[in-house]
């Protein structure tokens, strides 16, 4: 399964925000790109287990898209 995660910078708040149309419930906020990746990795297992139990997180390919 390939999932796209859209990442945008909220300059006013000083954070990055990640969302995904394919991964239900994914809305992550962090101060840096490294932070957003780490938060996504921590959340993926839980979100997939609850919302997409048929998907194995280890077999997912994730594509990050920078939103402007």
Features:
37% strand, 4-stranded mixed β-sheet, alpha+beta, 4 strands, 68 residues
Describe the structure.
By secondary structure, the chain is α+β, with helices and mostly antiparallel strands. The protein has 1 helix and 4 strands, in the order βββαβ. The protein has a 4-stranded mixed β-sheet, with helices on one face. The longest helix is centred in the middle third of the chain and has 19 residues, at 33-51.
Write the layout of secondary structure elements.
Elements: E1 2-10, E2 15-19, E3 27-30, H1 33-51, E4 61-67
Parallel strand pairs: 1-4
Antiparallel strand pairs: 1-2, 2-3
- Provide mean pLDDT, rounded: 88
Number of strands: 4
Specify the structural class. alpha+beta
Count of individual helical segments: 1
Largest sheet: 4 strands, mixed
Roughly what fraction of the amino acids lie in strands?
Answer: 35-45%
Give the end-to-end Cα distance, rounded to a whole number of Å: 25 Å
Summarize it:
Helix content is 28%, strand content 37%.
